[in-house]
Amino acid sequence: MGFVLSRKTMTRVMLLLIVTMTWFVAGDAGGTKPEERLFNIEKLEMFVDKLPHIPTLHGFHIVNGVLKPKSLQIGMFFKKWKFHRDLPATPVFAYGVSKHKATVPGPTIEAVYGVSTYVTWRNHLPSSHILPWDPTISPAIAKRGGIPTVVHLHGGIHEPSSDGNADSWFTAGFKETGTKWTKPTYHYVNKQQPGNMWYHDHAAGLTRVNLLAGLLGAYILRHSSVETPLKLPTGREFDRPLIVFDRSFRKDGSIYMNATGNNPTIHPQWQPEYFGDAIVVNGKAWPRLTVRRRKYRFRIINASNARFFRFFFSNGLHFIVIGSDSAYLAKPVSTKSVLLAPSEIVDVVVDFSKSTSKTAILANNAPYPYPSGDPVTDENSKVLKFIIKHKSETDTSSIPTKLVQYPHADVSKSVRTRYIAMFEYVSSADEPTHLYINGLPYNAPVTETPKMGTSEVWEVINLTEDNHPLHIHLGLFRVLEQTALVETEKFTDCMTEKNDAVKCQISKYARGNKTAVTAHERGWKNVFKMMPGHVTKILVRFSYVHSNESYSFDATQEPGYVYHCHVNIGSRRQYDDETFCDGQVIRFFRKMDGDTYVIDALCEDRKVDEACSLWRKMLKNNNCIPDNALLSTLIHWLCKDGRVTEARKLLDEFEKGSVPSLLTYNTLISGMCEKGELMEAGRLWDDMVERKCKPNAFTYNVLIEGLCKMGNVKEGKEEDGVKIVSMAVKSGKVDRECWELFLRKFAGELDKGEGNDLDSRDLVAHSFIKGWLGFDLLQGPVVTVKVFEDNGLIRQFLEEKRVLVEGANDVQYSEATPWFKLIVNGCIRDVDEINGCDIGVRALASHPIKASKKGLGEQ
Fold first, then answer.
1. Which residues in 727-764 are b (16+ Cβ under 10 Å) and which e?
2. pLDDT tens across 581-612, in order?
């Protein structure tokens, strides 16, 4: 099968593309209002609202004095919420047992060690979102309307089907579900160490907006036999969660989220991070709390999308840190400040009897973005005011010299070392466009396959300019050391080319200054701040850390677990939601026999030939047929070494007894496209389709990139390559980067003379217009104005070139899009070789206008 397209078939494909893009953008109900309608946050008086008590739900029953499992029904509701006394009520999404009782944050779930909690999460959200969302990054999209959601218990150790996988989303009434959704009720076994967790939305491509809308809450796991002897502050008054995040508001009280791209020539909506003007604690902006002169326990959660907080007290009070993330420390640590990344949790005791003042401000001085961004302002430097009563009192609580002792983390018993690299790619306009982990997108084949009950050393290499909080689902880890890279640019160039830390001689570059791990971060964690330009070594444990026992459930089941960066900005691939860096999947081996684990270990040690030899021995054993995940591992390493032909041979051997999975096909197709063997990739595609193996976004993206890079998107030859493009368009699974690459190739590369007259921003826009208009694709059909309105590339090109149009056809005019006056039916003169294109346009407003000879509308 060849991958070349004729003008006729390309026309058909492009019309499909237009229809698809129109549908996606029309689904965006958020819209963006001008910035002048923002609420002036300086007009809000601080500390006028009391710190709210978050309602509590118990995840257990007490029957005749015995603790029993309990089932909870928690819904997601649309309602209005007062964030401040003087701010109009804000539309939010909130968790609760009913709409009336729903709160922001949601109710705190309290569970007990060893007693299961069952939660049925129910979606009662409306058909459209209250915030603008980006339809170009392949988010979870419900074809029949509705807002996809799924809940992840951050820090929880539980079965894969209850982990809240990003593709396990569901809409209201479970009318539609994601590809990995399995059940409505989640089972939290509660057999891990006692500590703090939080639950939040985790839907693909929508996590950012769903969290901003209010879908988050705290989860506390208690263990009386462990905690009672510690005599820490207890009770509703003296033991309180503090859930902190930032928000900006419009004058009408609604949450403001800028949906205009930081650089529209790159993307019309992408913004690096979200930073709000107001600091919210437990649902109130800058609240106050009256406290007694005694010890209080605060479980502080940073629930911001991107903001780091470095907390300190204005009067010099200390934090006594007793826990980090979801585990206790071995002993308390006293510190004047605590740095928290998004999603991190710190468990502290504050002794107000030691205060020399009547008030204390919980303050923040972390730059944003951290660590080299803007300094804090007066508004975002203040968090919470404590009013300290004058009268002293007896305090029966204490701070023990020792807390909870867990089994020693023995690095010598780790079974292997993995290198995890954080990449950042920037455009010619110096704008980040891709942030990957190990150079792979989220939907790439799995590369991390640890064995349950083992420990591994992960060396996390941050090649970006920002500090990234890395979060690992299921596994906990200890931070061992942080080492600065030397000759970073040279090492980054090698990693970009080879994507292999060993081949790039990581030891040669990881020899800079070492940064000591902060004392209160030396316990077991599930999130840690990966410093830019550093290698951070961590010991990851895949068992219960308090007992070293294996999990009480089967962690090898689908859909597996993920690890990712927890800055919620743009996406998994390019720039949207759940993860700034592209999340990666952890898949555990099934317990077949010891050979499966040996094969993976051999591959990690670059002994691929030995691994293949063992594989073939397993194939000869009729009682032990290796699975697709193991085959994919072998194929991945063969392709990585450029041995694509051998990888295909391995697949052929496997096919004699089993049917390859999508994972296996994707791994090999990716390797073939990377090496330029597009014809072979096409044959494998045919085999895949014939076997009714349904491709996913990764399959389409790899093939389309292969089409473009090999120069096979030209007119004049028609072959079956058009099938891939057509199917991709219909599926709606292709990311924006691939479409831009595809359209550039389709339009034809600009010659040198033409290119010299265009800057880097014009180049892509010019190619887009040539691709859309150069083949008369838009003669006749009416195209929704939103296709143009939301495409910053085309809009920027038309605005800057002041494209003149002529003609006198009736069109409709939208006040929300004044730039649209520049476009009416007629001829676009400023674009070479596109004269005579008849563009039918339908705007959004109801009143028609006439176009003048100069192309400007007259009402």
1. bbbebbbbbbbbbbbbbbbbbeebeeeeeeebeebbbb
2. 334 444 443 333 456 667 777 777 778 888 88
Q: Say which CATH superfamily domain 411-586 falls into.
A: Cupredoxins -  blue copper proteins (2.60.40.420)
Check: CB of residue 150 under 8 Å from CB of residue 211: no
Binding residues: 829-830
Per-residue model confidence (pLDDT) at position 3: 38
pLDDT, tens digit, for every residue of 617-654? 776 765 455 566 677 778 878 887 888 888 888 887 77
Buried-exposed string 505-544: b where 16+ CB fall within 10 A, e elsewhere: ebeebbebeeeebbebbbbbbbbbbbbbbbbbbbbbbbbb
Residue 446, pLDDT above cutoff 90: no
Domain at 591-693, CATH from 3.40.50.2300, 1.25.40.10, 1.10.1740.10, 3.30.70.2740: 1.25.40.10
Tokens of 171: 């809409």
| Other CB atoms within 10 Å distance of the CB of residue 136 | 24
CA-CA distance, 240 to 242, in Å (whole number)?
Answer: 6
pTM of the model: 0.72
State the maximum Cα–Cα separation within the chain, in Å, rounded to a whole number. 89
Distances (CA, A) of 413 to 417, 453, 457, 459, 593: 11, 11, 10, 16, 21
341 alpha-carbon distance from chain centroid: 15
* Binding site as annotated, residues for Mg(2+): 830
Whether residue 716 contacts residue 7, with contact meaning beta carbons closer than 8 Å, is answered with: yes
Chain-centroid distance, C-alpha 366: 22
Look at the alpha carbons of 21, 23, 26, 29 in this order and tell me if their dihedral is positive or negative: negative
Contact between residue 259 and residue 132 where contact means Cβ atoms under 8 Å apart? yes
Residue-wise pLDDT for 497-514, tens only, equals 788 898 899 999 999 999
Q: For residues 748 and 395, what is the distance between their CA atoms, to the nearest angstrom? A: 77
**769-801 confidence digits (pLDDT tens):** 444 333 333 333 233 333 344 444 444 444 443
Q: What tokens does 568 get?
A: 């919620």
> What is the rounded CA–CA span in Å between residue 790 and residue 787?
6
Question: Which residues does 178 contact at the CB level (< 8 Å), separation at least 6?
Answer: 140, 148, 150, 165, 166, 167, 168, 169, 170, 203, 204
- Give the start-to-end residue ranges of the domains of the chain: 1-30+695-747, 411-586, 591-693, 748-858
pLDDT value, residue 266: 55
Binding-site residue numbers for substrate are 829
- The residue behind tokens 């292709």 is 734
